[in-house]
Design a protein that fits this description.
Strand order of the largest sheet: 1-2
Largest sheet: 2 strands, antiparallel
CATH class of the largest domain: Mainly Alpha
Helix content: 55-70%
Structural class: mainly alpha
């Protein structure tokens, strides 16, 4: 046996990357060296992601939600050019190592389905379409002393941002851009070069301005919404924990789902029709639908038009 004792990483050692390698030795024994080495290398990438993005250093804290979040990050990389086959292999290795460590198949996802989710057609309407409900949830968070978390969630929904983008947004600068341009250029925490090599302007009106004003207040003298005493990975772990404790009471789901809610709201603004995921079919004419999807994809920071299917539903 390759277990070293203790509780951390199911007894396989203190470092998650190394522990996964030991679990693979238990699984494969003295054979399949190439297979074990490949899984170990891909597992190391996941272990680093858990540490950097979620603050997780112990495989006992990994559940299906964590692996699904990793799958979403890989799907974004696929949209930016990563091979889908490689991304699927990365997820397969996570399945293999977790099964070896846990000695069960309780934490397991389908790589093909998950990596394809950015181009799959959404069939379930996203929670959070009504921004008033998001505001109510944010107000509860503020009452509990989580002003920065509340502001981050509101900004994510109002502008359709990824969590890292919302967290790193300089709300004071954003308000200046709104006054001058009526829009915010998203530059921090972006993927695929959007905001760095390519401008990504998101229009801001009405309720979104109020969200930015509250975010600027929560931000204080800082440059963004991440508390000055926390690193990104610590903040990321904290905000997921706090959000999970309140979201169900308001009928909300994952923070990332708020991007889909933004997309559906923008679709109605641009086309005058409900998004297909709400209507059950395409109501707008195809030319109008395509133009709206192109705009929304750009605002969300995606280069491929078909990615909009995972937010809005199909175009048929």
């Amino acid at each position: 046996m390759s277990k070293v004792g203790g509780h951390r990483n199911f007894g396989y050692g203190k470092q998650m990357s190394w522990a996964g390698k030991q679990a693979l030795r238990d699984r494969y024994g003295n054979g399949h060296h190439g297979t074990a080495a490949g899984h170990a290398q891909r597992w190391r990438r996941f272990a680093n992601w858990c540490r950097d993005e979620r603050g997780i250093r112990d495989a006992r804290w990994i559940d299906t939600n964590v692996v699904e979040d990793y799958a979403r990050s890989l799907a974004d990389e696929v949209a930016a050019g990563m091979s889908p086959a490689y991304a699927q292999n990365l997820l397969s290795s996570v399945n293999v190592v977790l099964e070896a460590m846990r000695n069960d198949r309780q934490v397991r996802i389908a790589p093909v389905a998950c990596i394809g989710q950015r181009s799959r057609v959404r069939t379930n309407p996203p929670a959070g379409l009504d921004q008033r409900i998001v505001r109510q949830c944010a107000d509860e968070l503020r009452q509990d002393g989580h002003e920065r978390v509340a502001a981050t969630v509101e900004v994510a929904r109002a502008l359709g941002l990824r969590l890292k983008e919302a967290s790193l947004l300089n709300a004071r600068v954003a308000l200046g851009q709104v006054k001058k341009h009526g829009a915010v250029n998203i530059t921090a925490g972006t993927k695929g070069g959007r905001g760095h090599r390519v401008d990504r302007w998101v229009p801001v009106t009405g309720r979104a301005i109020g969200c930015l004003i509250r975010a600027a207040k929560a931000q204080g003298r800082g440059r963004n919404l991440i508390p000055p005493d926390l690193a990104w990975k610590q903040w990321n772990s904290h905000i997921h924990h706090v959000w999970a404790a309140v979201r169900d009471d308001h009928g909300l789901k994952k923070i990332h789902d708020l991007r889909a809610a933004y997309a559906c709201e923008r679709y109605r603004q641009l086309t005058g029709s409900a998004a297909p995921v709400f209507a059950g079919r395409l109501l707008a004419d195809r030319e109008t639908d395509r133009a709206a999807r192109q705009t929304i994809a750009q605002e969300l920071g995606h280069a491929r038009l078909e990615v909009s299917n995972s937010y809005l539903g199909g175009a048929r």
